[in-house]
Amino acid sequence: MQRLLEVRQRLQRASPAITVAAFVAFVLIMLIAISRFPWDSIDEPRPAWIIGAVALAPLTLWLNAEEFRTQGRLVEARIGRSDAWRVTVLGSAANLAPIPGSALVRLAALTNETSTVRAGSSTIAIGLSWLGWSAVLAGFGLVTVGARAGGTVCLGLGAAAVGASIVVMHRLRSATVPLVARLSAIEISSVLVGALRLLAVGRGIGLDIDNGQAAALVIGGALATASGIVPAGLGVRELLTEALGRMSGLEATAGILIAGFDRIVGLAVLAVAAGLVISRRRTASA
């Protein structure tokens, strides 16, 4: 435990430098991708699809808030919608630090209602379910575009992660059928919205991307965020998505561009949401 605390303290001290380095790396990756992409071979940008991607971003935050409310039920804690929204927005912003910010913010919020061990176990259950369903959808996407080997691996790992999530829930004595079904429905919806955002961004910038390819890309964001070391998976998500894009038949650097522009859309919406949350808290405390 002492060793973990020392590592955390070192990361906190290095946080500004790591965050700046990650943003610089992200910008460089995007600039290289933009310069190397064959823009002459694609269609004109489609603004309607970009608007659709922006409209879907708040839905992602709302589903994350409902996920947190479900996590509360795992430990018999009742969490209101406004509290869940506040924790979700602040947790998403905390992901910009080189730590699993969202998980830590949720953990801190739940420890007011239950023990640290139960709060931590519920966080693990939620994370496994999210990663699992992301892998399952990516697996289906890879299989539909002909990458059967990679798709089969994703399907197997995804099913194992979902099963492990249910085991953790069972140990919390909360693995009831309605609760497992609710969590699965939220995670599947969240992953599908993520795939739709990637599809909308890809088509918005003029790429010829289909549903299967968009589904195949969705696991990149989950893996990058789960790493927790690079702030918000900056650069890591883009490179993982590029590898998945190559596997699914997209043009070179298309995966980087899709993930990068989707990130920009998400950060813009998050900035507005965080501003509203902070403004509301200041008004309430005045």
SSE-based structural type: mainly alpha
User: In the residues, how many domains can be counted?
Assistant: 1
Rg: 19 Å
Count of individual helical segments: 10
The coarse silhouette is: globular
Distance N to C terminus: 40 Å
Q: Residue share in helices?
A: over 70%
Strand content: under 5%
Stretches where pLDDT is under 50 for at least 5 consecutive residues are 1-8
Strand tally: 0
One letter per element, helices H and strands E, the order comes to: HHHHHHHHHH
How many strands, what sense, and barrel or not for the largest sheet? Answer: none
Overall pLDDT: 86
Please, could you describe this protein's structure?
The chain is an all-alpha fold and 286 residues long. It has one domain. Helices cover 80% and strands 0% of the residues. Helix 7 packs across helix 8 (211-227), helix 7 crosses helix 10 and helix 8 (211-227) runs antiparallel to helix 9 (236-247). The longest helix is centred in the N-terminal third of the chain and has 35 residues, at 2-36. The chain starts with a helix and ends with a helix. Mean pLDDT is 86; it is low at 1-8.
Secondary structure blueprint with pairings:
Blueprint: H1 2-36, H2 47-74, H3 81-94, H4 101-110, H5 116-144, H6 148-171, H7 177-204, H8 211-227, H9 236-247, H10 254-285
Helix pairs in contact: 1-10, 2-3, 2-5, 2-7, 2-10, 3-4, 3-10, 4-5, 5-6, 5-7, 5-8, 7-8, 7-10, 8-9, 9-10
